[in-house]
């Protein structure tokens, strides 16, 4: 995620059929995103919108691999 997007974490999406979405606008404050969505709803009442807080997704460390056991083999703790 670019730094400029990190500065505006509140995102307004237009929801489409088949779980698709279109990013409409980014905001720094939630109330600005809500106001924007409210105006869009007044202009187009049938539009479906979602306001989300998007954080940068950091890679998670890989989980340690466990040795595979045979079904007949017991595990010692």
UniProtKB/TrEMBL annotation:
Domain of life where this protein originates: Bacteria
Protein name: Uncharacterized protein
């Amino acid at each position: 995620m670019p730094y400029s997007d990190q500065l505006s974490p509140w995102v307004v999406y237009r929801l489409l059929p088949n779980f698709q979405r279109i990013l409409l606008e980014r905001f720094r404050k939630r109330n600005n995103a809500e106001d924007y969505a409210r105006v869009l709803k007044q202009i187009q009442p049938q539009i479906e919108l979602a306001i989300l807080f998007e954080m940068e997704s950091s890679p998670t460390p890989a989980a340690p691999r466990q040795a595979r056991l045979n079904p007949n083999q017991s595990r010692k703790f």
